[in-house]
Design brief:
Putative iron-regulated membrane protein; PepSY-ass_TM; transmembrane; alpha+beta; membrane
């Protein structure tokens, strides 16, 4: 009785969310390697002829001026992604959204990326990111291209229901006897059986082997979908550890003032003192704001290995360093949420695993729908046969 109820729940939740789960899995699969694929697909945007290692980049304010003047009136740069490698452009982002709009094209009022040679100041390319392929894949993954207000809710609750489907699936998968033919079918697919049996076994076996990674995808997805959920699990895991060791510096560190603009000086200090960094990121603030913060990423393709530098504009000093290595366990887990979700946490190896697991997740709704259709046809045939028997008896 209990197992039949779980089967009913598993079936109908799968039918309701199957198409969305398939879309999320396929788009997640594609997006897993988006960092690598972008560099391969758009070399004219991301690369320049290598320059002498001793040549410093132009001041950020100069590059920002060039980027801003390359955009249409009313479009404003809000973020800069910088790459210290001598053969890379710097990327200046300008974006404005309408959170209440329906549809992708209305959700983004504008989204541009300006690629600039940091050593000459030349604008190398202006990308309409709103129509860029990988951005479309991402928005399909985040909100089904329906806009945040409508699509986000569908994706969020489908992800939550997917967790229920996975947990109910492991109950249905559990072998009655841990020996013989039934046990083998739980762990391995016999390709010699009829296709209906093969499809059923594929659903069971793939569901089992992808369970834990699929749960990791779903739970980290919930952290993006429901900020309250993320705060709760961060706070819960923080209970198991002492306070973080990263603190405000006892004595703020003065920084050299080589440029007129303070943000130029802060960036110059960051590049000089973190030569191993593969990427830096700056969320631009008004010059009237006292604090300037810069994120230092050790690895370009991993957001969870970082240092945040907090500068005081008024005192012209570095006042705080926040390292990802020194966070409490819950905060650390939260900072790694994106890396876990995309599979980038362990580099190329975990990305390949995430790619395969995403394909497995995409296959589950397909094999599940086929099982449902086959059983529906079988039920109809039985009803038709019973009707004929009653008619002629």
């Amino acid at each position: 009785m209990i197992k039949s109820s779980i089967l009913w729940l598993h079936k109908w939740l799968g039918i309701i969310t199957g198409i969305i789960v398939f879309i999320l899995s396929i788009t997640g699969c594609i997006y897993t390697f988006q960092d690598e694929l972008k560099l391969w697909a758009y070399p004219e945007k991301y690369f320049i002829a290598p320059v002498d290692s001793s040549l410093p980049p132009l001041p950020l304010s100069t590059l920002l001026h060039n980027a801003q003047h390359s955009l249409d009136k009313g479009q404003k740069i809000s973020r800069v992604d910088l790459y210290p490698a001598k053969d890379r452009t710097w990327v200046f982002r300008a974006m404005k959204t309408d959170e209440t709009a329906f549809g992708h094209w209305n959700y983004f009022r504008y989204y541009k990326r300006v690629f600039i040679n940091p050593y000459t100041g030349k604008v190398q390319h202006i990308e309409n990111t709103k129509t860029e392929f990988f951005q479309l894949v991402l928005q399909l993954h985040l909100n089904l291209l329906l806009g945040k207000k409508y699509g986000h809710a569908l994706v969020s609750w489908s992800t939550a229901l997917f967790i229920v489907i996975l947990l109910s699936g492991i109950v249905l998968w559990w072998p009655k006897k841990w020996k013989g033919k039934n046990l083998r079918r739980s762990f391995w697919v016999d390709t010699k059986v009829k296709w209906k049996r093969l499809n059923h076994d594929l659903h069971n076996v793939i569901g089992f082997y992808s369970l834990f990674i699929a749960l990791a995808f779903a739970i980290t997805g919930l952290a993006f979908a429901f900020p309250g959920f993320k705060k709760t699990y961060i706070a819960t895991f923080n209970l198991f550890q002492q306070e973080a060791t990263s603190k405000t510096l006892a004595v703020p560190t003065p920084i050299p003032l080589a440029y007129e603009k303070f943000q130029d000086n802060a960036l110059h200090y960051s590049l000089k003192n973190y030569p191993q960094a593969e990427m830096l990121s700056i969320r631009l603030k008004k010059e009237t704001e006292q604090e300037v913060d810069i994120q230092i990423r050790r690895y370009e393709k991993r957001s969870g290995v970082f240092n945040w530098l907090y500068f005081d504009r008024k005192e012209a000093s570095l006042k705080q360093i926040k390292s990802g290595d020194n966070l409490r366990f819950g905060d650390k887990l939260g900072s790694l949420n994106y890396d876990i979700h995309t599979g980038s946490i362990g580099g190329l190896g975990t990305k390949i695993i995430a790619f395969i697991a995403s394909l497995f997740c995409a296959s589950l709704p397909i094999t599940g729908y086929i099982i449902w259709l086959n059983k529906s046809k079988k039920t109809k045939k039985k009803k038709g046969y019973q009707h004929n028997v009653n008619k002629y008896c």
